[in-house]
Amino acid sequence: MNNTNRRLSLPSAIGLAFLVAACGSGTTSTATSIATSSTASTPTRPSASTVAGTGTLTASCTAPAVATTAQTDGPYYKAGAPQVTTLVQSGMAGSRFTLTGYVLTTDCTPIANASVNIWQADATGTYDNTGYTLRGYVLTDASGHFAVETIVPGEYPGRTEHIHVKVTPPGGPTLTTQLYFPGVTANDSDGIYSPDLLLKITQSGNTEAAAFTFVLAT
Ligand code: FE
């Protein structure tokens, strides 16, 4: 299936219900000051959202936070990808968006200088296995925040739309996982897909972003 020209869809009603259920009782703060709490009795998942009218990403986290689910790196990982600010190249097909979020510990402490290493298929579902197109890493800032522009990947046989990620804090160890898009029909027939790894789609004007907060059990 070729999703070259589709736009990101807002979460479905089911997706929103999941997000609400997963958000816990943490409070919201600005991108440079993540709100934390240690009062939760059961592990929770951090949430991310944008401030209405500004597009500024915010995150909330209530300790203890649930460590992000690990998944296989699959057959297409390739070491040596460059540091990037964007994965989009001139003339590249596909729906552009900003992949953004945070890297935190299970006690909600931001992790600075963590590497967020991404590799993904292009809009037709094809990986670049000879070069580094749609492969690269960014580093988190002091608040644990990262952002990189990319495109919505196409599906390939057996797989729904997904983005592979390796998140490595200074000194390691590396979390390997995959991220998924809400509202994609093929999610339901993908044997690897996990709703725990759904991106949260946010919009501000014509700018689209997809957010995820990684929690590392360091
Ligand atoms: Fe893949």
Kindly describe this structure:
This protein has 218 residues and is mainly β. The protein has a single domain (3-216), classed as Protocatechuate 3,4-Dioxygenase, subunit A (Sandwich). It contains one helix and eleven strands. The protein has one helix at 13-22; strands spanning 35-37, 47-50, 57-62, 96-105, 115-119, 135-139, 145-151, 162-168, 175-180, 200-204, 207-216. A hairpin with a 6-residue loop joins β8 (162-168) and β9. The N and C termini lie far apart (38 Å). The chain binds fe (iii) ion (FE).
Short description:
The chain has 218 residues and is mostly beta strands.
Write the layout of secondary structure elements.
Layout: H1 13-22, E1 35-37, E2 47-50, E3 57-62, E4 96-105, E5 115-119, E6 135-139, E7 145-151, E8 162-168, E9 175-180, E10 200-204, E11 207-216
Parallel strand pairs: 1-3, 4-11
Antiparallel strand pairs: 2-3, 4-7, 5-6, 5-8, 8-9, 10-11
Task: List key phrases describing it.
globular, 1 helix, 5% helix, 31% strand, 218 residues, binds fe (iii) ion
